[in-house]
Design goal:
Organism: Arenibacter palladensis
Strand order of the largest sheet: 3-2-1-6-5-4
Protein name: Phosphoribosylpyrophosphate synthetase
Helix content: 10-25%
Number of helices: 2
Largest sheet: 6 strands, mixed
Shape: globular
Order of helices and strands: HEEEEEEH
Number of domains: 1
Distance between the termini: 20 Å
Strand content: 35-45%
């Protein structure tokens, strides 16, 4: 059972890791890189199963989104993307490029 009322990102990540979402990723050169296997995924090879939005405690314009995702080869994991004015825009651009039909959150 998903805890929809978790207080923070870590609680949700821990919950999904218990369900087998163990992959950790970073975005580099418009590819999602699995930190363990080093496999690179294009946006069309990623499906977003769920997302959680968090506002900054002291500054609501500091926002983060936790993506729960699965890749085309069955890798499952999470990406925590920071959307503050000082964040890395490459991560945001990557997630914008994921096809709309790959968002199960709609």
């Amino acid at each position: 059972m998903t805890n929809e009322f978790a207080k923070n990102e870590k609680e949700i990540i821990d919950e999904y890791q218990k369900k087998g979402f163990k992959g950790n990723y970073r975005v580099e050169n418009m590819k999602l890189i699995d930190l363990k296997s080093k496999i690179a995924y294009s946006p069309e090879n990623v499906t977003i199963l769920k997302e959680y939005r968090f506002e900054g405690m002291s500054n609501p314009s500091d926002m983060s989104i936790l993506y729960i995702l699965e890749t085309n080869d069955g890798s499952k994991g999470t990406v925590l993307a920071n959307y503050s004015p000082s964040s890395n825009i490459e991560t945001a651009e990557f997630f914008k490029e994921i096809p709309e039909e790959n968002y199960m959150t709609n």
